[in-house]
Amino acid sequence: MKKPMIVLILLAAALAGCGGANKPSLAAFKSGFAANKQSFHSLGLDLQQAIATAQSKTDSQLAAEIGTLATRAKAQATALGRLNPPSGFQADLRTLESGFNAVAGDLRQIATAATKHDATAARSATEALIQDASTVKTGDTAISAGLNRPTTG
């Protein structure tokens, strides 16, 4: 009789532990998102600066700068993917993450076009970048509104 009781206690303990530790915490998500938001806001400002000063740079300099921004955008997508959002934020977080992945790809294409001195390819990738940046903005706005945080400018 003692053996079934031990099994029941172990089973109850195992079931009690299921889901509790892995349940997404709103506070942890909000904190993690805030840290990421600072990072991607900085990325946006650096991209604006790169665009504003592009005319004064060689294609090689521009390719290096944009390539670095592409790496940062990819890292941002990866960091967002590591967050554990509550269910109400999962779709918007995936939108934001995929937006950053697309932005990284666009920036990589711009850098490659600059290296090859291909203005047509650069223009095409820039148009895609503008579209993909709006996906980032959509995800940011939705999550920020849900967390009662200001959106990134």
Structure description:
With 153 residues, the chain is mostly helical. It is 80% helix and 0% strand. It is built from 5 helices and no strands. The protein has helices spanning 2-17, 26-52, 59-81, 87-115, 119-146. It is elongated. The N and C termini lie far apart (67 Å). The model is unreliable at 4-20 (pLDDT under 50).
Number of helices: 5
Main sheet specs: none
Helix content: over 70%
Q: What series of H and E elements makes up the topology?
A: HHHHH
What's the β-strand tally? 0
Radius of gyration: 22 Å
Low-pLDDT stretches are 4-20
Secondary-structure class? mainly alpha
Describe how the helices and strands are arranged.
Elements: H1 2-17, H2 26-52, H3 59-81, H4 87-115, H5 119-146
Helix pairs in contact: 2-3, 3-4, 4-5
Characteristic terms for this protein:
153 residues, mainly alpha, 5 helices
Condensed summary:
The chain has helices at 2-17, 26-52, 59-81, 87-115, 119-146. The chain has 153 residues and is an all-alpha fold.
